[in-house]
């Protein structure tokens, strides 16, 4: 069955690339959610004034990859203890967030987050929010599959590529 979940883990270029590389992921669409303005642009979201988060809407075949596995990869690809930032990317648009599409997703996300906290996987407190998805706005087309189309971009070389390389080593058995 095809399932969707919307995730925020810092800049959406890295999360988009890693999610679309997984077996069972049918699509990964970068976009914006969680804010107040209607149909925001990248420039508006980057201003930090819209309240929106850079996210990726992941559609996956849950007979090939489970929601728990998608969450495992989500938690692994970023630092969920950094409030409104990921590394040098600072602002509410980079916050760690799970936007669930159903009550079952909310329960699963809360269960996994609680387990990670009780096992003290990170030294600091997890700040990832778990919120209902209200509206999702796809990002401008040039953001879709950005890393694959712009591998020589300096940000991609210094921030995205190292994360993706590490991700591919750790999860090589789950890649397409």
Give me some keywords for this one.
single chain, alpha+beta, Peptide Methionine Sulfoxide Reductase, Chain A, 6-stranded mixed β-sheet, two-stranded antiparallel sheet, 6 helices
Would you kindly provide a written description of the structure presented here, covering whatever features stand out?
38% of the residues are buried. Helix 1 crosses helix 3 and helix 1 (12-20) packs parallel to helix 6 (154-170). By secondary structure, the chain is α+β, with helices and mostly antiparallel strands. Helices cover 35% and strands 23% of the residues. The radius of gyration is 15 Å and the shape is globular. The strands form two sheets. The chain has a six-stranded mixed beta sheet with strand order 7-6-1-3-2-8, with helices on one face. The longest helix has 17 residues, at 154-170. The chain has a single domain, classed as Peptide methionine sulphoxide reductase MsrA (Peptide Methionine Sulfoxide Reductase, Chain A).
Poorly predicted runs are none
Question: What is the CA–CA distance across the termini?
Answer: 18 Å
- The shape, in one word, is globular
Output the CATH class name.
Alpha Beta
**Residues in helix, %:** 25-40%
How many E strands? Answer: 8
Number of domains: 1
Question: What Rg do the Cα atoms give?
Answer: 15 Å
Q: Which topology does CATH recognise?
A: Peptide Methionine Sulfoxide Reductase, Chain A
Mean pLDDT, to the nearest integer, reads: 96
- Kindly estimate the percentage of residues that lie in beta strands according to DSSP: 15-25%
Q: What about the largest sheet? A: 6 strands, mixed
